[in-house]
Amino acid sequence: MTLAPRPAVGRSVLIVVALALVLATVLPIVAIGELPDPLATRWDGSGTPTSSVGRTALVAVVGATVLVAAVALVALALWPRPLRSNQGPVLAGGAAAVGAVLALPLVSILLANQGAEDWREVAGPPVWEIALVILGSLAVGAVAAWAASSLPSVDERPAPTPPLDAPEGTQVAWTRGLSVGWAALASGATVVAGVVTAAVGSIGVGLTVAVAGAATSILSRIQVFADHRGLTVTYGWWAWPRTRIPLDRIASAAAIEVVPSQWGGWGYRGSVRLFRQAAVVLRKGEGLRIDLVDGRRFVVTIDDAATAAAVLERERVRAAS
């Protein structure tokens, strides 16, 4: 089952997201009452303001950036020619997320400053509001990427790797791991920073940071398995969560060169169910591409991908014969 929208629906959603970003920026400026000038824009862990920005400058910069993001979304929705593979979701998700990550904090800042005579008197927004802004920005980007996944695109599908040459009756399996040291260090440092913040400052902010650090550790290591059951990818040092693609869902397997910019950066990009494509991108270079029988695809960066593809092709041919 696929949850990707029809092209007409996807185009409409992109236009609606663009309009929503513009309205989310304009309406608070018009509706919110008296505001100080300058506005408090940053606070420390205790909620005390630490810096300010001129009201006109803040509104102008945020408004202009959101307008550019909205125009980009409308242009994608109305683009007459097929896009390159991955281009639509990456561009739409990026533009929408940038617009939301500016528009939503602007609303929060204006609400916090409402009615104050001096920016130094403005208390910081609550932790739940900050979390809502972050989650809202991610959600807006995800919706736009989901909508753009329906746009016509051209995908240069690589030729399948020749099946592994092994004696008949031989059971073949392949596995390889990939660790990213800097990601493990970064996630560990984030967890420590969160714990320290919770101990000496804001408990809510500290716990949020610690949980975020623990979550990112999932992508500091992966282990990939290929055998007669299909493909399995486990994440993190505890081998959880995991992605499984049964052999009967695989149409072809091939080794490819993975470029992070084509997938919108590093990490777990996309969704096989929502966007019809997903990639685990931990570095630039060799990777394994799996094309599914329903047209969707999954990519993972891993060394010796050609052998993994050959194993899967051998098992796929054997199962079909």
In angstroms, what separates the terminal alpha carbons?
A: 26 Å
Helical coverage, percent range: 40-55%
Count of DSSP E strands? 13
Strand content: 15-25%
Q: Which term fits the overall shape?
A: flat
The averaged pLDDT comes out at 89
How is the main sheet built?
5 strands, mixed
The low-confidence runs, each spanning 5 or more residues with pLDDT under 50, are: none
Number of domains: 3
Structural class estimated from helices and strands: alpha+beta
Rg, alpha carbons: 23 Å
> Which strand order does the major sheet show?
9-12-13-11-10
Describe this structure as you would to a colleague.
- With 321 residues, the protein is of the alpha+beta class.
- It has helices spanning 7-31, 55-78, 87-113, 127-148, 181-200, 203-216, 272-275, 305-320; strands at 39-43, 49-53, 83-84, 153-154, 174-179, 221-227, 230-235, 242-246, 250-258, 267-271, 277-281, 285-292, 297-301.
- It has 3 domains: 7-154; 161-178 and 220-320, Pleckstrin-homology domain (PH domain)/Phosphotyrosine-binding domain (PTB) (PH-domain like); 181-219, no CATH class.
- It contains 8 helices and 13 strands.
- A hairpin with a 5-residue loop joins β1 (39-43) and β2 (49-53).
- Keywords: Membrane, Transmembrane, Transmembrane helix.
- The chain crosses the membrane at residues 12-33, 53-78, 90-110, 130-148.
- This is DUF1648 domain-containing protein.
